[in-house]
Each structure stands twice: as C-alpha cells, then as structure tokens.
User: Fold these one by one.
Assistant:
Number 1:
Amino acid sequence: MRILLWHGYLLDGTGSNVYTRALAREWSLAGHDVTVVSQEPSPERYDLGGAATARPELPGGLLPVFVLDRYPGGLEARLLQDFTAEERRRYVEANVAALRELLPADLVFANHVLMGAAVGAALGEPFRVKAHGSELEYSIRGRPELEAWARESLAEAEAVYVGSKHIREVLEEVAGHVDPVVEVPPGVDIAEFVPQARAEALAELLEEARRDQANPGNAEERLPDEGNAARFESFFAKEVPTVVYFGKLIENKGVQLVLEALDGLDARAVIVGFGDYREELERLAAEHHERVLFTGPLEHRHLVHLLPLADAAVAPSIFPEAFGMVAAEAAAAGCPPLVARHTGLAEIAAGLEQGYPEHLRHLAGFRTGEVPDLREKLTELLELSASDRAALRAAARRTVEERWSWAGVAARLLAPVA
C-alpha cells in the first residue's frame, strides 16, 4: 500500500510522536510505501524503517497545540482553542496542499481529531484518523465551535481509531456519535524494550548518556540534562530501591504524588521529562536531596537501559489518559508499572492483573490521587521477595508481548473495517 502518515508535530517527546514513528517503521518494514508528513526538522535521527518524510511550511509558523511547549525550527506554538477561524483555515490548507503533492495514495492516516480529521476531510481522499485524547480533553471539550468541527470532520473518515474504551466514551461525549469507531491500543517495541541484567543496563545507559548533545545550563528543555552520564554513574553506584517516572512534567501528570510518597520510604526516584512544572517539582524534591534525580527528557535509547535499573515505574496521572504507553513500555522492560486506576491507565492495570500471579494483582495500580495508597503499594513492590519480584517482572513482560506489540497494532490499523 501507498500510505501517507500525517502528524502535525515532532517525532519524539510525547506519546503521539512516538506512536507516529513506530507506525512508520512497522508499516515500512512490512513492505508498504510510507511517507511521514510532520513538523519534525530532523527526521533522520529516527528509525522510520525507510519511510520517506515531508515537512509542510506553516503559515506564519503557527502550530496548534494542546499543551504549550517551545518548539524548534521557528515554530510558534499556540493553543488550538486560541486560533482564529482564519488561522485554522490557513493551517488546514497548507497541510492539504503538502499532502496533494504526495498523492496518489491508497490511504491517508491522520493523527488527532483536530487537526488530523480536519486535514483528512479537506483533502477529499479516503482517510482514517487516530484520536489520541489530548485534543479532546485539553482543547475541544466544552468549546461548541470546535466540537462541531470535530463532528463534521470525523463524519468523513473511513474509520476512527481509539486506544481504549475510555477514549471511545470521551469521543462520544465531545463529538457525538461516530461510526465506525475501532478500538486498537497503542503498542510497544518489544525488541527494543527488554529486561536486562543490572551491570549491562548501567554500562549501556552511561554509554548512551555520553553520546548526548551538549546542553550547557540545560538551556534546551527538549534535550537531556548536561552531565547526565556522571550523575547516573554516581546515583546508581549503590543498589538502592529505585522508582522511575517518565513523561511530561506538567501538574496533571501527578508527578508530585511520587515525591510525596517517597516520605517514609527507603527509596529514591528518577524523574524523566520536560515541562512547565519542572521547577516546582524540583522545589518539592529538594527535601529529598540526593534521593531524587531529574534528567530532563530521555530518548528510547536511554530508557531501554534505565527501566531495568528501576524496581517500579509509576504512572500517577490525575487527569484522564487515553492509554498509558509509558506503563506498557516499562512492563516490556521487566519494570513493574504502578498506575493510577482511572480511564485508560485502568485498562493497563486490568491487562497486567490478568497476567500477574493472583497474590500480586493488587500491585498493578493505586487509587487516583491518594498518596497513602501509592506509598503502601510502593512499599510492597520494593519489599518483594526475590522470587516474587522475578515472577512479577516476567509476568509484566509476557503481558506486553501478548497484548501490546507494535507489529500487531500496525497490522490491525490497516485491516478492513466492517
């Protein structure tokens, strides 16, 4: 098949970015002719399986986003809901023009209800769209003009994909009835995220950190912190129970709960990511001193070695989540995830529970926003016997292999829709 994979953003740093490059790689390796259309200025940095790339020029450099971040390459990020109708029109026209230059195609696959479905509908070619959830919750919900536009755009799609039952329900609430809607969860590269022995994982993490681009004064928030290699070497010199969080550093992700839960625990934490809440999190962590390490954002090449060094990965979000890819990635690396039991994260917990030994199933999740329950579950996880720890790690890995591999996900997205 000739596939145009449209994504309005970069190819790293967030779930939908990782999703896009994973699909490009899997579809390309399966023999399809794929072109990724995104705003990534350096696509050569990523393994796209041989997919071609294109980057539309945006009018005025304006990029509609759902959470404000700084973007490279002269782009000005502005919340979607703050775009005027004329600015939205120009953005869609610019992306449609870029796609038309790449036609013909058997399929246009677009990410995000807005702007993805709007671009697909305006193109006038068969298209499928993936709703990621962030656009629904952060920008479209409660804004009648955007809700109507989403509904009209989705009506033109050949199929709408959601990653979880929760997002199916949110889509119905925000955009009204859509048909057909197909539930296909995101995936994990099970050849990349694998369990590793501690010594091997640490040596390879240090090697990857030494390869990082210079970032004096941590001026670039999308780059790993300066000096991570030396800091990792010192931090992991002793074996101490370790908890990891990786994702955006914004208040809704609930990272502050992890820091509060550390009180009274003989444990330390690694906090990975970037976002406007980092400064406040560092202030909260100051009382823990050397027990909390902030790294800035890390790429998969780092994370695949960091996760095997941790005893638990916490996904503590206090805001609705479409799925919880970070938890699935941790599980694939044999690092048991502990997730807040709500929305798409609860579906991750339910999948893990089915694979866990019965007496350990309660350790897949904790009550949303409740620090005492998080602390209690972390205590149990960190104090597991060697045999129980091995059983939990193996079960987490096995669950991902059975449920969330990228190869299976990519194939399901191209299957005929009834």
Number 2:
Amino acid sequence: MNAEQFFSEKSILDLSFFNFRNAITAAYFANQDLEIQRVNSNFKSFFPILGNVTNASLLDVLEQLNIPGKQIDTFVSELSSQGSVLLPEVHITIDGQEKIYSLLSTHTKDLDFSYLNGVQGQFVDRTLEWQLKKEREDLLEQKIRDREIIEEKSRQLEILANRLAKYLSPQIYSSIFSQSENVVNRHARKNLTVFFSDIVQFTDLSDTLEPERLAAVINSYLSEMTKIAIECGGTIDKFIGDAVLVFFGDPDSEGEVKDALKCVDMALRMQARVAELQGYWRKLGVPNGLRVRMGIATGYCTVGNFGSDQRLDYTVLGSPVNLAARLQGAAEPNTTLIDHSTHSLISNAVETIFKGEMTPRGFSRTIGYHEVKGLKSSSSIVSSQALSHVGEHVEVNVIDSSNIRAAIEELRQIQTQFEKQLQSP
C-alpha cells in the first residue's frame, strides 16, 4: 500500500497548492492531460471572463484569453520537449484594457502521489514593467531623434556659417559670432586708414569679354586682392564691381602708425601681384592686362552697422572714405596716391614723391598728396610667400593662392602628362 491510499486526492491537491493561495500571481495546476485542477483567487480576479475553469482544458483557456495560436503552439512544444516553458510577453485584453503577462509553466513529478504529476504554472502581471520599458525605449528613441535633429541643424548652421563667411571680412565675421560685445548696435568714431582701388577702363573690358572669361578675370583679381588684404590685417568693407574698399584700425588696431604702414604695404603687395598675373589675364582675352589705380587716406570715420531692419552693412562713413576714392581716381594706372595725413604717419618707412595739391570734388580745402614708390626697408611689413616663378623656359603664376597644396599637386599632374607625351612615339 502506498502513501496516496491514506490521503484523499482533494486534500493533497489543496495542500500542495497552499503556497499559491496568497501569491500575487495567477497560479494554476493541471493534470498530465492539461486539464485544470486548481487555480488561486488571483487567477479568477485576473481573468473574470473565464468563470469556473476547473476541469477545463488549459489550451482552451489560453484560446479563450485570445492568446495567439503561434504562442500556444510554442507553449505546447517547449513544455513537451523541455519540460518547462516561458512566454515572456503575452498580451491579454480584459474589459477593453490590454495587459501584458509572462506565462511560466513546468511539469511536476511526485513519486508518492501520482495525481500531483501534471503541469504547474502562473501568469505574472508585467504590465507596469513593460510600460516603463516602453517609456524608456520611447525616451531613448526621442533622444536619438533629438540628437539627429541637433546634428542636422548643426550641419546646416555650419554650412550657413561657411557661406556667410564669404560675404564678410574675417574680423567682422568673428565679431558677429563672438559673445564679447553687441556688434549689431555698435558704432564708434575712430582714426582709420582707408584704401580704395579700381581697375582702369574695366567697364569697356566688361562690355567686350564673354561672361565666363570676365568672371574668371574679375574673380581671380578679387581673390588675390582679398588674400593680400587679409594677410595684412585689413578689414574688407565691400566690393563695388571691380572696386575694393578696405580699412585698417577696426575692429582691431595696432596704433594709427602701424595701421597706415600695413595699408601701404598691402597696396604695394597688391600692385606687385597684379604685375605677376598680367600674363594669365592676357591669355583670358585681356590684351593689355589689368591696370589698377589705388588711393589711401587717413582720418576720423564713423564705423559700425548701418542699414535697415532687413539688411545691415558693417561699413565706414566719413571724409577719408571719399578722399581715398578721389585719390584713386586721380592716380595714374598702376600707382598709389596717399593723402598728407597718411604720409605723415609712414614717411619714415615708405619712399614717396610729393605730387602736388588738389581740391577734390566735395571738399572745400586743398589736399596735399604723394605717390608711393616703395618701402625704404627691403623687408615687407607683413611677411609673404612668393607665389609666382618666371624661369628661362617656364612661367608659373598661382592664380588661387588660397590652396597652395592643390596648386603643387596640379603641377605634378602636368609633369606626369608631359613625361607621357615625351615617351610616346
């Protein structure tokens, strides 16, 4: 006689299921044929739509809970092959409210009581846990999307800033994007040295050249003049067609003497560079090359942002600006004229010739002016690199000196092409 003959099946089942009476899960016990024998009170409260499930098939109960057939097949397959099964995410809708459970089940074995051999399992409510997980995932996804948006906006701003930099002098660009001062409403009265240049008879040239060639000529000219102006520390005010307006002394100044010296040195370097590029421009259809007049004046100007609410221009206003333009108009081609104020500042370092006096249009007083011949010292005020070479057989002029490495690479390619032509029969 074995032990189970001394105890009733109901008592043993009730006793074995005792631990699940106060469980927080929905627990069940089914026999080996998967017929439900016991459920705890939570099972009934979790799934009130099931009613009394005693002796009901566990698989029918799962179907009644609208658990997908694929998950039921997994439940049966793994329980049979492994002896236990875990479905981590089971969606069950009760009274229109969806909840998420995990279903854990395992075979039970007892040598003394055969009717305890069956399947024991429990539904664990994971709804809050999955909600928190979903919120965490949503926050993570939103964070990723926000980061992507920020990165895209940063790329757009960088592109915009790079484009904007081409429309502004480096000093003005730096001031606008710095937080050190409010440059939008900034105006000041300063002693500046103002430079104005113009190409002789450029209007006639623009009427005769093809648009592409004209663009190549003027862009190469302005690119080279701009590079020299930046190297010398000048603030490029604007381009007016072929005319160039540059001033020294704002937003940075090294003193009025050094500002004037740097401006004159810039003019000399520009004239030298124009002379170096004459051959290039002749090949583009400018038979006589380009001839440039330059004027420089020093005096007090008002500098700052001027314009409307829709558009501002950081520029200088004052008689020195007009005087620089008048001196440029009076200069001979390929020469630079300076006023007496500028001359008094730079006479110790620059060779000049007094040209006389004139009363410029718009001025009530006579102005003495001088022609710049060169620096008294053999060294330039602002160091520079030679970007031209004239040899016995080859003349090289670097048109775009902003990328000297690219120019060197292009010369190497030309060398390779010439060597291949020499090797060919």
Number 3:
Amino acid sequence: MELVDRFFRPPDGNFFLFGPRGTGKSTWLRRNLGGAPYVDLLDAETFRSYSARPERLRELVEASPDSRNVIIDEIQKAPKLLDTVHQMMEQKRGWRFVLTGSSSRKLKRAGVDLLAGRAIRKTLHPFMAAELGERFDLGESLKLGLLPLVLGAPDPAQTLSSYAALYVREEVQAEGLVRNIGSFSRFLEAVSFSHASVLNTSAVARDCHVNRKTVEGFIAILEDLLLGFRLPVFTKRAKRKLIRHPKFYFADTGIFRSLRAVGPLDAPEEIGGGALEGLVAQHLRAWTAYSDQRSALYFWRTKSGLEIDFVVYGPDTFLAVEVKGSAAVHTRDVRALQAFAADYPGADLCLLYQGSERLMVGGVRCVPCEEFLKELVPNSPPLGI
C-alpha cells in the first residue's frame, strides 16, 4: 500500500506518540523525521544495549550535533531510559525528544510523570476515511478495520486474524501482565460481546469464569495497551435520570471482528451493527485527538432506555450522533435525538444510516454514514456545522 498522508500534526516540543501496534508510528517517524538519531527498542540487540547502558543515548545524540530531533521507538520496552531523557531535557540544548509507545502500562510503573510538562502526550490512530480518500471502502472497513499494518499487508485478512495473537504473545505474555494467559484469551472473546455496549463486568466475568476484579484488571490492560477504551456517560446539567456505567469499544473495528466469535446463534446484523458503531467511534475519537480544540467524546442513555450513541462536546462543538445500520430512516429512529434536543436545545443532531440520501426527519439531519466519515476532517466541524 502506498504511503498515506496522515492528519496527525506533531507539537513543536518534546512529545510522546502513543498508539496501538500497527497504526503506523514508525512509518510516520521515518517519513517525517528521517535522519534523526533513532533508537529502535523492538530490535533485540538495541534493546539489550540501551537497557544495560541507558547513558549510551547521550553518546548517540552528541555524535549527531546537527540533528534537533531524537527518536526512541517503543520506549515502554526500556523505561529506565526516561531518566537519561529527563537529564538531557534539563540541559536545554535544543533537542526535541519523540518517544513512541504501544503501551503505557510499564511507563506508569516507571514514573513517566517525571516528564510531566516536558513532553506532551499525543496519539496516532488507525486511518480515517478522509486520509484514504477514494481508497476508503465502507464495506471492507467494516470487515478489516483501518489499521495501516493490516491494510498494507499482502493478505490483510490473515494479518488481522493474527493481530490479537501477536499482542497476547509479545505484550501480555512476554511482559508478564497476567498470570493466566488462558483466562485472558477467554476474556478477549467474552469482552468482544460488550463492544459498542454498556459494559457489565459481572457478566463478562461469568462468561470467562473469573471474578469481577480480574475482569476489571484485564480491561485496564486493554486500555493500557491502547486496544480498547471506555466511553463515559454525558451528564452535564442532566435533566433526566441517567445510567452510570460506561460503554466499551475496541480501538479498531477490525480488532473487534477478529475476536468476535461467530456461530449459528449470532445474527449478522448484530455483529454488523457493532462494527458500524465502532467504526464511527474510532473516527470521532481520532477527530477529537487530531483537532486543536479540546472536545471530548461521550454517550447518553437514560434509565428509561433512551440512548444517543455519541455526544461530542467542546468549546465549539456540541453534536449528538446516533448510528443506525438500516438503509431507511423511520420517525421512531430519531426519538432519542429529539429527547436529547429537548434537554439540550443548543445541540446539533445527526443520524447516520446506510442509505444514500441526506434527509431531514423530525428535525434531525440524517446523513449516509460513508459520506459522514469521508467528510470528517480534523479542525473542520463535522457536517460543516
């Protein structure tokens, strides 16, 4: 697959660049910061060398006096290097450190707060539809997701099927994050049924035969590995009784599809609906991460059962989004959005569906999902609102 221009824009100073494996962090670095001193900690020999002598980083950088940027790829592999990085930052010699990672777990334990204020945290997400342009295919994206590693592979389906196993082997098992790898593997399948749903840790625990606290720890591991995230309930100035539990999503629809078991009792529309909602979730999440304004992503659900899939809330954006997998829109499909508008008159409303026409139903803008995703560009309002 030819190189794709990404929407990610780096800050001027030091920064961490996090993202799941396969989002293209190394490719972006080599393309945009080529020629800088580069420490690749995925290389076994490099890892051994810098783990034994972290001060070697200073020797490497001082041997390249004309380079401003210093890149350490997969910094979580050798967190002791952060002490050396911290010391070099204190010298204020104009170096800019770019520290990438696919896991924040070991860094948390190693005291990454030492760099607080000295290195901004940024994230690189799977492709957005607008990055791919005409190469974006909604149907294929719902099956394979949008990880650059997968889409650029000779056999994308095979690469996707082995992606979760790669993580379990190289991150979870190798780093000793869990005691029982079998329990964690069962958890991955069980939690796939919670994708795009309100998270019920007790139910997941029953499905994989572990206790609830173990499941909560496993979910924290998924979040630290940047493979999944929880979406909180939008409660600002709430006028109705709302539920409290968050929703859960995998970071990429392809990851969800690779883990979700399929059998005679699994309705295709149920799996397809979760995949579509997850695809919208990862796009909105990337949009908020790449845009300059500080927007946040939520969902809204009342105890009576009214639900809005996504609420984007920020200084210049207040947008409620409902996702439907059908090709037609009925009046009943917009009732939750109308209820939300009654509580929040200033919110813009949007229903995404699988049809081909833009409609206005009950005062709600209804937009083809593929069209919405292709037009979603950082620092531009969704739908041009």
Number 4:
Amino acid sequence: MMKMQQRDLIYGGLLAASVVGLFAGSFVLQRAATAEDALVEAPIFEVDPLWPKPLPNEGLLGMTIGVSLDAADNVWIVHRGSSTLNNNEKGAELNPPVAICCRSAPPVIAFNQDGDVIHSWGGPGAGYDWPESMHGVFVDYKNNVWLGGNGAKDSQILKFTVDGKFILESGQQGHNGGSNDPENFGRAAQIYIDPKTNEGFVADGYKNRRVAVIDPDTGKIKRFWGAYGNKPDDSPEGPYVPGATALQQFRSPVHCVALANDGLLYVCDRQHDRVQIFHTDGTFVKEYFFAKDTRASGSTWEIAFSKDPQQRFIYLTDGQNERVRIVERSTMTELTTFGRGGRQPSEFFGVHSIATDSKGNIYTTETYEGKRVQKFNFKGIGKVKAGDQGVVWPKRTT
C-alpha cells in the first residue's frame, strides 16, 4: 500500500509538472508572439554623436530653426544667433569682451558630409531687409538659398547665392496686409521650390494663415489658400481644445510645406496637431492628426520624406513632445518614434526642422534652449519597436 501511495504521488507530481510546463510554455509563446506583434517594419536610424565638427572661432549656435540639403548633400542651417544667446554664452562679443569664449556664429551655415563648415554668412546688407527673426532655409534646384523670417515685421522672403550674394526680396518688411495680401507675407515659416514646375510654396505663417505660391524668378505671389483649400480667414482662433470640432481655418503658425514626388503637398498646422494634404492647385485631399491631445506649441512641426522613389515614409518632427515620428505615407499611420526630451545625442529640446540627404540620413535642428543640429544615420529598413523607441544610440563594436 505504501509503495502504491508513493507511486501515485510521483505520477501526480509529474502530471502537475507537465501541466505547469504546458502553461509556462504557452505563456512564453504568448509573450514571444506579443513581442513580435510589437515590431513594425520601418527605417532604422542611429545618431551620429560626432557630427558636425566644432564650429570655428569658438562660435555657438542660437535657436536653430531651419535645415536643407543641396544637390551635393551639403547641410544648410539657419539660426538666430546673438539674439538668443545669453551673456554667459557670448562673452567674447560683449562690449567690452569678458572672456575668450564665445561668440555667435554667422546666421547661415553650410556643412559638408564630414561636418566641416564650408559656407557661413548672413546679416543686414544693402538692397534687402534682413529678417528680425530667422525662420526656415531652402536650397533650390538652381542652388539658390531661400530664407524666411518670423519677426514681428517680417513680411518678406529672401533669395541669395550659396556665397551670400543677394538676388531677390519678395514682399516688403513691415507691410503685411493679412492673409489675403497679394504682395506681402506674414512671418513666413518655410519655403519649397518645385523643380518640376518652377513654383515656390510658402508656409505663411506665424501671422498669416495660408499657403502662398510664388514665381521664384520674380518673387510674385501667384495664388494662395487657407485650410481645406478655403479662402484664408484671420478671425480670432481661440485656444486649441483637444477633441473639439476642427477649425475650418489654419491656426498660427502654418509651420511647414513639403511637396512629395507624386505632387501631393503636405502642410503642418502645428498647434492644431494636424497635417493637411493638398494638390498644388490648392485642392484639399485629406487631413490627419498626430498626438492630438498635445497643447501649447503642438505636435506637427516639420516634414521630410524617405529617399526611396515612392517616398514610402514621412518623418515628422514634434518639438513639444520631443520626438521624430515615422509615418507610413500611403496610410498616414504612425509606425514608431525616436528621441526623447534631453540634451544628450538622440535626445531633443525643441526639435524643429528636418531634412534627408541622398543616402537617407536625417538631419534635425533644435530651437529654444536646444540650439544645435544633429545627424541620424540611416541603417536600412527592418524591424523596430512599435510606438516609442527612445534614443537611438549607435551599436557598440568590438
């Protein structure tokens, strides 16, 4: 009898262990499946903490609020310089100087792929009105450099050679007549020149609430439109309330324009947490919201496209939540994000502008106290964490 009881206990224990093992195995499989489900196919990036090289002459960047790539993959940025550096940052340029460190770098700077400064210029000069507050840079297919400004009186955009020689001023500083002004801008945020049609698209802007289209050779405004393709409306907009019915007008600022290869124009209505899509004649296509509970400065700051021929992905900066959002362009579905708030490489403080080079690498700028440009190396398409990836550090090699 004793042996039978012992045998039953052994068999019972084995059965219980088998059941536990079965459930444990099922749990492991379930966790693996869940982990697999949490991966998406998307571009993979790693921050390049050694790019760019230090600026010459102990120069510093102020609020850095524009980035563009030219045909040779040189990286152009604009920043607000001395007006956004505090005295502890610009001791060498005070009168009298209080230290050998530091001074504001010129407002327009171009880096080569190695991170060396190859052009630096800008500031007031004869024949044009330099912006009170820089905002946006674009290098067009003719290698001209376009600049915008969002200062209180900035109702002009400017065109220069890569060496800083003045070519054209469109609009006249201090002459803004509102969102239906046919001659002047209203604190323009960004410019894009279409090489196929030789038309320029302006996110106009911090005072106006419209997209304006210009002739880049003359600077003349050809047409413009507001949200949903409607006539622009400058009526009071009130505070943004998440969940409320979307306004039929843009909120200030209309912060970006980005033209895809297929002719769709993407416009950032920043403080409304939305991107509106148009045909280039102003016909409204659709709108999409991102992080729509975001208040303050909003979630949709600036857009760049992936470099595959179909431009499968959109990269959307969000300087309030401190993320770069990777969005599948065909569905406008957010796949993943990278970055977080902070001051280390791959962290952001006011991530503002974004551009891609011919190899698919990303460049971002930071406004507010961020005051820098960062490079993120494209590592191909693969499985990445859905949702929030956090920082994207380079992988260690032995």
